[in-house]
């Protein structure tokens, strides 16, 4: 798994020392209202089990990167980006991004990290399509996806359950041609 660079961010493999940050983020109500739900707290053991294979480099389902920025001369981990293993026949993958540190949200860091991974996926791995899902109402994620060039493809009605309620999930996609036009 190669390290990747955006204009504002660097992306690197997940390591064991990232677990306390992931644990904190996955218990932040602002993150969890869009991720797993605020009624679904993550114990440290559960976080460790969830990311163990990524840390060991043996995850066959997902590639996970930690997003870093430089601030005041120090490197700081601010989030995580993951994509599923590429479907070899359809040449597609699903991608997700989480900015865990509140002061770095809505500042372009997630979009920059996403562009770096999209460049890797389209230009190096040679995928044809990348898709991104988000719960309906997540306006921050919707704006970021559209700004990067994702196209809203549809809504999966009551596709997920969040905090005891069935919720719609919006699907955004980007094709290789969309990526090329945006460059």
Task: Spell out the helices and strands N to C.
Answer: EEHHHEEEHEHEEH
Which regions have little confidence, pLDDT < 50, spanning 5+ residues?
A: none
Supply the CATH class. Answer: Alpha Beta
Shape: globular
User: Structural class, from secondary structure content?
Assistant: alpha+beta
- Tell how many strands the DSSP assignment holds: 8
Strand content range: 35-45%
Helix content: 25-40%
Q: Count structural domains.
A: 1
Strand order of the largest sheet: 1-2-3-4-5-6-8-7
Give me the number of helical elements.
6
- Rg from C-alpha positions? 16 Å
Name some characteristics of this structure.
183 residues; alpha+beta; Aminopeptidase; 6 helices; 32% helix; 36% strand
How do you describe this structure in short?
With 183 residues, the chain is an alpha+beta fold. The protein has 6 helices and 8 strands. It has a single domain, classed as Aminopeptidase (3-Layer(aba) Sandwich).
Give me the secondary-structure topology.
Layout: E1 4-5, E2 10-13, H1 19-25, H2 29-32, H3 44-56, E3 62-71, E4 74-84, E5 92-99, H4 109-125, E6 129-135, H5 139-148, E7 151-162, E8 165-175, H6 176-182
Parallel strand pairs: 5-6
Antiparallel strand pairs: 1-2, 2-3, 3-4, 4-5, 6-8, 7-8
Helix pairs in contact: 1-3, 4-5
Model description:
This protein is an alpha+beta fold. The protein has 6 helices and 8 strands, in the order E-E-H-H-H-E-E-E-H-E-H-E-E-H. It has helices spanning 19-25, 29-32, 44-56, 109-125, 139-148, 176-182; strands at 4-5, 10-13, 62-71, 74-84, 92-99, 129-135, 151-162, 165-175. Strand 3 and strand 4 (74-84) form a beta hairpin. 28% of the residues are buried.
